[in-house]
Amino acid sequence: MTAAFMSLTNPGKTDISLTSATSPVAGIMQLHEMAMKDGKMVMQEKAGGVKVPAGSHAHLAPSRDHVMLMGLKQALKPGDEVPITLRFSDGSSHDLTVPVKAFTEEEEHYQPSATPSTTP
Ligand SMILES: [Cu+2]
Questions:
Q1: What's the 82 CA to ligand 1 centre distance in angstroms?
Q2: Distance from the CA of 87 to the center of ligand 1, in angstroms?
Q3: CA of 37 to the centre of ligand 1 (A)
Q4: Is residue 34 in a domain?
Q5: 31 Cα–ligand 1 center, Å
Q6: CB-side exposure of 25: number of CA atoms within 13 Å?
Q7: pLDDT at 112
Q8: pTM, rounded to two decimals
Q9: CATH number for the domain harbouring residue 71
């Protein structure tokens, strides 16, 4: 599985939403959220996109909202850089390049855990 994480800042005075993302390396990209289903965390498409409140930010992070890359057209390896275009509800778009990292914590995010996770 390949997911992209980032922080989005909205310096404006109106709420906007991240509504879609595209990348030349992925056939399909979806905005996902984590939801509890039958005691397990599962990913599902986030209806309405990822809201970025006015004057605040949204964090896309492991076990939270994220951008899912599917139908990869090439193998991604750590050190690669992936261009991504984000589109927002106000019609704006933003190009960024994200570095590829190996993600080894994946499994635990699909298990219920009694210990609060710490964020660095
Ligand atoms: Cu996902």
A1: 17
A2: 18
A3: 15
A4: yes
A5: 7
A6: 18
A7: 42
A8: 0.81
A9: 2.60.40.1890
Q: Return all residues near 110 (Cβ < 8 A) that are at least 6 apart.
A: 40, 41, 42
Distance of CA 116 to the CA centre of its chain: 21
Residue 109 tokens read as 């995010």
User: Could you report the per-residue pLDDT of 72-111, keeping only the tens digit for each?
Assistant: 999 999 999 999 999 999 999 999 999 998 876 554 444 4
> What is the 19 CA–ligand 1 centroid distance (Å)?
15
Lowest-confidence pick of 1-10, 11-20, 29-38, 98-107: 98-107
Would 113 be classed as within a structural domain? no
Establish if 72 belongs to a structural domain. Answer: yes
- Residue 81, domain member (yes or no): yes
Instruction: Tell me which residue range forms the domain holding 13.
Output: 2-106
User: Per the structure, how many domains does the chain have?
Assistant: 1
Distance 42 CA to ligand 1 centre (A): 8
Ligand 1 centroid distance, CA of 118 (Å)? 21
